[in-house]
Amino acid sequence: MTKSVLLLCGITVALLTLALKTYAHAPELHKKESADKPQCEAMQKMDHSDMDKDMEDPIMQAMMEQCKDWLHDEHEQDVKEHPSDGHDKHNQG
Amino acid sequence: MTIIKTLVAVIIFTLVVGLGVIYSGIYPIGADQRHSAVTFWLLDTLRKRSVARASEDIEVPSLGSPQQLLSGGADYNDMCAGCHLKPGVTETDMTIGLYPTPPDLTVPPEKHDHDHGSGGHDDPVVIAKQQYWVIKHGIMASGMAAFGPTHSDERIWAMVAFLQKLPEMTPEQYQIITTRR
């Protein structure tokens, strides 16, 4: 009986210690709080006239990283809808 | 001898009056009141000098990678935007209700309604050091919390990197970059 009580106390103390060590602001906790998704469609309306500048701009690079899945899907869709466009462009270039 | 006696009398009188004001409770402490010009200058100068001194030896790492913007942006949106605003938002309940009003970090440092101590506005390295220190340690009795106990240095520097780019961002760019994934 005494052993069981001691074991229970030990487990409780261990769990409490573990709980206290958990950071209140761990990124995973925030993730659960925010259900928003990046609105990557807005990238289509942005000015991309200076492509060289875009590629060096950390803001643009961060957006491309954030939206890489969406950009990939968009590209796939484009290829499906206009299968010959890409080859024509390459041939012209 | 008379000068010393007068000086001692003035010091004692000032201490007694000062303690009298403090203990009487007549000083308005509500955030919907404004400090007198003298009190504001005292507190403002104390804050600026303290932050400048405490942050002067901090080494600034390389800032501005896309990964830092994504990490710092998500943290900024969750913990800071309510008080320090985001692109397209000019005021919130917190910016209206807090006193002193938190600086609007969506505008460049030179347009803030406060300076950063000597050389602060002209030197991005000084600003980065001070921003890192303030995020990590907070500021007493100002509403600015210390994030050092709950956030790694890496995450705090990522927030500083994000702050450097924030004034350039449109609302659309901000939304994409700050969404936590």
Task: Outline the secondary-structure elements.
The complex is a heterodimer of chains A (93) and B (181).
Chain A: H1 2-21, H2 27-33, H3 51-56, H4 58-66, H5 68-81, H6 85-92
Chain B: H1 2-24, H2 37-55, H3 66-79, H4 81-84, H5 93-97, H6 124-137, H7 153-165, H8 171-178
Helix pairs in contact in B: 2-6, 3-7, 6-7
In short:
The complex is a heterodimer of chains A (93) and B (181). With 93 residues, chain A is mostly helical. In chain A, 69% of the residues lie in helices and 0% in strands.
What features would you describe in this structure?
The complex is a heterodimer of chains A (93) and B (181). Chain A has helices spanning 2-21, 27-33, 51-56, 58-66, 68-81, 85-92. Chain A is an all-alpha fold and 93 residues long. Chain A starts with a helix and ends with a helix. Chain B is mainly α and 181 residues long. Chain B has a single domain, classed as Cytochrome Bc1 Complex, Chain D, domain 2 (Orthogonal Bundle), CATH 1.10.760.10. In chain B, 55% of the residues lie in helices and 0% in strands. Chain B has eight helices and no strands. In chain B, helix 3 (66-79) crosses helix 7 (153-165). Chain B is elongated. In chain B, 31% of the residues are buried. The model of chain B has no long low-confidence stretch (mean pLDDT 93).
Considering the chains and any ligands shown, give keywords for the structure.
heterodimer, A: 93 residues, mainly alpha, 6 helices, 0% strand, B: 181 residues, Cytochrome Bc1 Complex, Chain D, domain 2, 8 helices, elongated
Strand fraction of chain A equals under 5%
Question: What oligomeric state do the depicted chains represent?
Answer: heterodimer
How far apart the termini of chain B lie comes to: 73 Å
Greatest interface and its participating residue counts: A-B, 26 and 28 residues
SSE topology string of chain A: HHHHHH
Domain count of chain B: the total is 1
Radius of gyration of chain A: 26 Å
Strand percentage of chain B lies at under 5%
Task: Tell me the number of strands of chain A.
Answer: 0
Low-confidence stretches of chain B: none
Instruction: Characterize the biggest β-sheet of chain B.
Output: none
Counting helices, strands and paired strands, the structural category of chain B is mainly alpha
| Average predicted confidence as pLDDT of chain A | 72
Helix-strand sequence of chain B: HHHHHHHH
Total helices of chain A: the number is: 6
Number of spatially distinct domains of chain A = 1
